[in-house]
Structure formats: structure tokens, C-alpha cells
Fold this protein.
Amino acid sequence: MSPASPHQKALNHLKRVDPVMEDVIARVGRCTLSPRTEWTHFDALVRSIVYQQLSGQAAATIHGRVLKLIGDGADTPGRIVQTTHEDFRAAGLSNAKARYVRNLAEHVLDGSLPVNSLHELSDDEIIESLIQVKGIGRWSAQMFLMFRLGRPDVLPELDLGIQKGMQKAYRMRKLPTPKQVLKRGAKWAPYRTIGSWYMWRILEVD
């Protein structure tokens, strides 16, 4: 890998502190993780709610319909609360997701979720702020930290893909518990996001 890679410092650390990770990096290859910077934080959170538990193409289709209803940008929360539940259902959202999107907008409008300044908060503060919203749990908040904000030291211990990747990489007989994931990944700090990315990718390698 080129020394110019934005992840080179993280990879050097991971390989130094964890021989298993050194093998995983060699097998997977270059880290291509980069945060999604298009749209606003709010738009990214709406997208994350729409995409929950759906395949990529189905989610993209529904997300496209939702965007036609509410648009994007600074006025989106206001447009959401003016959109009927039936219109969201017609766009393909489940009852629950229609409520979640509205709840997100309400938290932003009443000031309880400082969505435009989330990037100024610590990881823990962001998680605490986001899990107030129905439909955004710890896992979704961690995905926001990793893929929207590019925070370097996030380990989603509840993620099944991370657990399966760790089981494969470390040749564990059983799927690790969230507590075991955190314990084994502790040595990756302060680059646990990159370690997590490799746990997902190792599942794609024979």
C-alpha cells in the first residue's frame, strides 16, 4: 500500500499490536473506507432509518421516493412534519419507519437533537444524543460515527458482521459476545474503526 494512504498510520498500528490483524490486512488488501460527505447530517440520518433491515436496491428505491416527498437540505425537518403518515406509507416506509422519521424531525425542530453541530461532540455524546430518537439505537449511532463523520475509534460490538468476522479471523469456535468483541478489539485503539472495517471485509475473502 502506498505511504500516501490516509489509513497508513492506522494499518501500521494494527499490524504492530495484533498479528492476526496483520494477516487479515494482507488477505483483504487496501482499506477503502471513506466517510459519506454528501447531504447534511440530518439527511444521512433519514437515509440510515430508511435503509435499516432492507437490501440495497429496495432501500435505494424507497429512499428515492421519500426524497421526492421531503427533499433535502435545511428545510427537510419542517417538510417531514407536514407530510402525512399515509404519504410516507405510500412511498414504501413501514409504519414504524414513518414514525421514526417523524420523531427524528421533531427532535431537531424542538432543539433536543443539535443535528447540525453533532460533529462538534465527542463519540459518546453523539451516541447519547442520537439514541433519544425512536428507531436510532446504539448500532445506528455507531454507523453514523463511522460512515458519516469518519470517527477513527469506533467498534460496533453489537454488529453481527463484526462478530462473524472476528470469529473467522481469530478462529473462534463460537460467535464472540459483544463483551468479547470489545475485549479483543481493545488493542486496536485508537483505530478501532479500521479494525472493524477489516472484520467486515474478511468475510468476503476465502
Remarks:
- The domain at 41-148 is CATH 1.10.340.30 (Endonuclease III; domain 1).
